[in-house]
Amino acid sequence: MITIKNLHASIDGKEILRGLNLTVNAGEVHAIMGPNGAGKSTLASVLAGRDAYEITAGEVIFEGTDLLSLSTEDRAREGLFLAFQYPVEIPGVSNVNFLRTAINEIRAYKGEESLSAKDFMSLVREKSALVELDSKLASRSVNEGFSGGEKKRNEIFQMAMLAPKLAILDETDSGLDIDALRIVAKGVNQLKSPENAAIVITHYQRLLDYIVPDFVHVLYKGQIVKTGGKELALELEEKGYDWIKDAHPTV
Amino acid sequence: MEQIVAPSKMESFRRNLPASLLKIKDEDLAASNERLLLNGFPNSRTEAWKYSRLNRIASLNLNKKTSNPISWEHYSLTHEAYTFVFQNDQCIYFSQDLPDGIIVKEAVNLSLEEWKSFEINSHVIDLNKTHAQNGLCVWLRKGVNLTKPVQLIFLSEGTEQAAIHRNQFILEKDSKMELIVSHCSIDGKKNYKNIVSEFHLEENSFLSVHKLQNEEGEDFHFSTENIHQKNNSNFTLTTLTLNGNWVRNDVNVFVDGEGCETFLNGAYLSKGIQHIDNHTTIDHMKPNCNSYELYKGVMDEKSTAVFNGKVFVRPDAQKIAAFQSNANVLIGDEASVNSKPELEIYADDVKCSHGSTIGQLDEEAIFYLQSRGISENTARRLVLTAFMQDVFEKITSPAVVTFLNQVLSERFNWDLSVLEED
Fold first, then answer.
1. Residue segments in chain A with a per-residue pLDDT below the cut of 70
2. ipTM above 0.85, yes or no
3. Residues 365-404, chain B: which have Cβ within 8 Å of A?
């Protein structure tokens, strides 16, 4: 699905990612954990194509394509989805119209016909039910006046609508109460299939109680320093990150 | 107080302008001539013209060339209207098929007694008074509800031609009409357009005006609207400035009756080196009235804009609700805007507010939309259209909406249809 090799990225001259390697196959869920400042959100931003970051070395192959050479929109059209840590409010642009524009641009990119208004609306109804998002929210301006939980559920709703091959969830659990967390996780789990994959970026283990990862990676100082199964998350929860830091003082 | 700078510039500017063909009192004409002679063009020390320099206008070498009438049908927004067309300083089409209850005349045919006047001066109005060549005058009789709009088209054409007109609209008690004023040009080069329109709304009358400014080329455009409102009248002016090299709008509303409603809406979209200046004044002279003003603009490339909105509430004008808002987005690195709201409130039982914002496009919002598969162009268009939407929503004329969509798509590569609800 995606292969990241020796990825180096910096912002304002400061190197954040320092030789990151990661391979994710179809059907897998990978969790990336790590202390604050390890580069977790930078990884998500770089993969989505935020242009504030400079890629200084390395490559990312996504479904056989050089991901880093694509524009942000083409990455999305190729099947990459980023659930934002801080979803943006866009006054005046309605959720459904923006999604319909997105879906139709993606379909045009793939040489497919536009989705009719009727089919689109039935898709909205089906997918908003999945994350228990009030259908009234679907027709409101994008994220405007949404609560923290509603914004995160809206991210998963959009993910459900766009049906990506690879979803990157950037700290989707942050700021969520336990009920919202359960709803978000349920949505993610229902979208899981042998054909797609997910990278779940999180600081805490609790999301992984609901979205069970196949692999857990520890990101520290811009590198993946440890990889294990889901039990690694529990170990991190118990011991904190200090033992990782102590083991890699010179990274 | 307009200052004396270079009266000689004004004299040379007026040199080839023919005297007014409209009836005007001798003393009014003399007063205008005297002010122009003494004050000349205002300079940047005059507050009202601080951000709109007149040097390029003052140095125009206006002349008069007779040209054949051009075909104007292409510029008409709708067939379902009573249409009147002016080309430069001539009336080239005058709708004959008018219903009962409306009287329309060319301004040159008005008697002195038929003109009403406003106590308001500017060098623009003085130039209009001293050199107006024609214009349109409409009376709507008591109780008449005009079902089709009046469409007034001002076409400019040629090089350094002047089009100076004065219009007057009188709406008698309980009458109602819609007016579309459309300004366009055919490859105009340094033409000078000065249109003064005066509106008298009598008791319980209703007038909605859509003013469209879409001049191509390098014309200089001055529009002045003076409005007098009596009891329970309702006035709306929607100004859409979509093109034009240099545009100045002066709107002065005198709300001289109780129970009135006044709506001033404006949308201005500019690029290149365009300059668009909107000056508005709403003078609440009587109690129990509402006014709503919403102007929004998007400036691209090196274009510049000015907004100055004054609201006066006089001492006895209690129970006034006056809301004013001006919002701007600068999308060009070298674009600029000067926005100045002014409230002067002398009554104590009023509800007034004003807001002025200048911002840039939210790049985080653009990135968010792109990350969902929307192209950068579409993302920008979506966000800009959303920004302008609350002004566009105030357009009540279907013909104007169609026209706007066409211009937005052709000139700005915007597509409003993406925002339409199913």
1. 250-251
2. yes
3. 365, 367-376, 378-379, 382-383, 385-387, 389-390
